[in-house]
């Protein structure tokens, strides 16, 4: 009996590897893609200086681990998008909104911290959410193409060393990481879980139309992150809709994570239908949720401290205070002093500031996704030009 079972299992394994090999061959996997550029859309998970350029720089100690100074990132060091750029041999992306010291010859970053897919009907000064919603990012992209090509072709000189070649727009990898702020802004506005889930269909329509506009301008290769387990982030935990309900085993809000999971389910379906509509384009759906939840739920085993305790913050269960962020000041005995200080060893922490991950956590997430283990279809980053429909 045991032998028969083992033989059946061996046959099944052989069959599975044959099917996988055929699927890989059909998808053309194997050859590297040589993306010459990356164009990124998103929120603070991938902002490399956009919000800082316009609305005030992210203060120290942001940037302390890798850049040594604040770099426009809400992190002690590099973000997942930085590791993606590094691994493709592309320099860190300049923020489109940054007017000083930028170099767009191998891509541009339209992401800003606080961005959502939908427009916020409020001001950044009131809500903290960015006015640079995904539709605005797509207008910026359209202007970027038109104007960069005009300048590249008509001005020449140094502009040829600062702007992308025309063919890069169809050869580039287009990366997306957005949606987190649509969910949190809904909960922060005291909407119910039902109301919050109710916006997801609209989010998918808007995301689809932005991706289609990128396709209409020549984009072919898409790498789309899903949203993380938001219910494990201190800023969500202090304002969770299920304050009276128990947390899950990792200490995360069950309600928040369920909405994030529903968003991800719909996103995966949306990416699949884009793949059907555009058989000549390649779409990779990347499950960063699983990578982040793995890190949070197994933090100790992976060599990290309490994953819910922020490195850079001030006070309370999570070392997080909504009114005093990382680098934030408070009045102590009549004088303003920085009280949102960094922990000594950010490499041991998962949460940087209660909203964003540390560089060490970002590296973990990148390592989990780079080879395609969490992707649909399961292609590696370097081969993401092969994620075509069949
Ligand atoms: C903003 O208002 C418009 C029009 O009422 C509405 O359709 C949209 O859902 C609102 N957006 C948000 C983020 O609440
Ligand atoms: C960019 O150029 C295209 C083609 O010439 C034009 O249709 C479009 O309106 C332009 N977009 C912007 C934002 O200038
Ligand atoms: C911009 O970066 C590219 C590499 O991506 C480099 O070849 C080029 O020289 C840089 N431009 C300037 C003006 O330094
Ligand atoms: C949400 O509810 C809390 C608690 O009742 C209240 O303090 C806060 O002002 C409300 N926020 C909004 C945006 O209505
Ligand atoms: C504030 O002043 C009081 C009285 O002088 C002193 O005991 C306390 O240590 C001071 N607090 C800080 C944080 O300096």
Automatic annotation (TrEMBL):
Q: Matching InterPro entries, A to Z?
A: GDSL, SGNH_hydro_sf, SGNH_plant_lipase-like
- UniProt entry keywords in alphabetical sequence: Glycoprotein, Hydrolase, Signal
CDD domains recorded for this chain?
Answer: SGNH_plant_lipase_like (cd01837)
Secretion signal, residue range per the UniProt entry: 1-31
| Keyword DNA repair in record | no
Pfam families in the record: Lipase_GDSL (PF00657)
PANTHER family from the entry? Answer: ALPHA-L-FUCOSIDASE 3, ZINC FINGER FYVE DOMAIN CONTAINING PROTEIN
Describe the family membership recorded for this protein in Swiss-Prot or TrEMBL: Belongs to the 'GDSL' lipolytic enzyme family.
Instruction: Kindly provide the name given to this protein in its UniProt entry.
Output: Uncharacterized protein
